[in-house]
Amino acid sequence: MGGKELRIDVKLVVLSAVLITLIIAVVGLWSAKTHEQQLRQELVEQARGFAQQMDAVWTFVDANQNRINYTSDGIYEFKGLHCSVAAKAVAQLFNRSTDYVVKFTRTDPRNPGDAPDEWEQGALASFEEDPAIGEYYQLVENDEAMSLRYCTPLTVEEGCLSCHGAPKGEIDITGYAKEGWSMGDIAGALSISIPAERYIESYNAALARDLVYYTLAMCAALAILFFAVRHLVTKPLHSVVESLGEVGRGRIDMKLNNSQSTKEMSTMINAFNTMTDELDDLYGNLEQQVADRTERLQKLSEQAIAQREEIKKVNERLQQESAYKSDFLATMSHELKTPLTATISYLEALQSKQFNLSDEEKQLASSAEASSKELLLIINNILETSRSKDIKEKMNWEVIDVLDFTEYLLQETLPLARRRNVTIVRKADPACPLIYSDWGKLRHVLLNLMSNAIKFSHEGGIVELAARICEDGKHVQIAVTDHGIGIAREDLDSIFDRFSQTSHWGNANPDGSGLGLYIVKEYAQLLGGEVAVESELGKGSAFFLALPTHPEGAPSEQHTAY
Known about the structure:
With 562 residues, this protein is an alpha+beta fold. It is built from 13 helices and eleven strands. It has helices spanning 8-63, 65-69, 83-97, 118-129, 161-164, 197-248, 263-284, 286-350, 359-386, 388-391, 402-419, 439-455, 516-526, and strands spanning 101-105, 136-142, 145-155, 186-195, 397-401, 423-428, 434-438, 462-469, 475-482, 530-536, 540-548. It has a five-stranded mixed β-sheet, with helices on one face. Strands 1-4-3-2 form a four-stranded antiparallel β-sheet, with helices on both faces. A hairpin with a 5-residue loop joins strand 8 (462-469) and strand 9.
């Protein structure tokens, strides 16, 4: 290799210098960004405070119009001092005494001096587009000087209607034609311009001081690092290199002194001394050491074989216990399902006209029916999960009318919806074709989705059950939408996992087995379709089940849409 190689301390210092330079650059950029944000926030707070003061002036004058315009004898004499005149006068006084620029502006001003400039036109357009916007601001550079432009909307209140309300075109008391405004309309905006140059100079000076401080601190740290590495690393390493050379020349009894070194270097020196001791022993009795190591390896190999056999036995026991658990769950679920199904039938019969129940008794029976169906759905989820291997091999394909099926689903979930005071809205496109599917599995999928939608809806909420034919004409989409608590975006990928409990939905914690959506996804795939979800925390969720009209494996008979 050509050229002289650099020592480790020099390399470390150079690398540290590059790293420190990058850190200073990042800190500088971050500080500049932070200072800019602080500057904008400080100016906006000033503008907000002044806007509140101007609003107070406007409100005060508007509230005292009767005192201003009525004499002590109760005779009305318009003095010409209304809220707009007073506020504009205050703004003009403030403009003359400060470097602020304050004005009231609107798109069709009565006074040409109130006409908006290009930036104010953009602010007014934003207020008109979205009346909920409470302010509009931006740092703007004009004539090589920065300033904060701030606008807040002026809305029509009751006191404004006498001069600006209906009928449009009628001459008001000030001699101008009324605009025909209504309560809540955008009447214009308060525009404030605050020069930012002195603030920018102050922030730039602070940024420069910070960068100088960081640079000096990093340089001092770099110098300390250089001398520390040279004393604690480079010199001990040089001693190790020289000693290794001696060992290479046959002096295997070399020993190093680690009294003036770091912990890491002491470890390396101890390892070096141990190595020389082992080399000495190796040369002294090489064959004995080889035999000892061979025996040790043999023992380790036997231990590994024994451990592998033990692991195999443990795995077999775990598989047996898993099978016992599945059988137990299936048996218990089946034993619970039979009496629970009978209970639901009794409750449905009890609500018929022949028993002549009171409204309160009907409500109690309906609530009991809904709770029983919720429990039955949980039991069915457990039962279906425990026999999932058999389900994949048993598909009962039949022709299903989507319109009739959604109507059935609506009636099936009404008791639960009534108990939770939730309204179900059914929207089924009459153009939906007949489809081939497994009625029982499709019912199980949609009952899980509808049950979740109802459970996670707010009281008095709405759940929408919609069905339509997809654009390709070969699939039907069934959507279940609620406006309840929603699901956090980071949890969307895990809600279809087995035993994914309801902590994924906001802060709610209703009863459930955590198997419902897992079964929804599994069955959707068995039916040849897929399930998707869209949700926003606090706004609700929408689950979309897309099913082919004629999936693979279904009978080949043709069917037509109607």
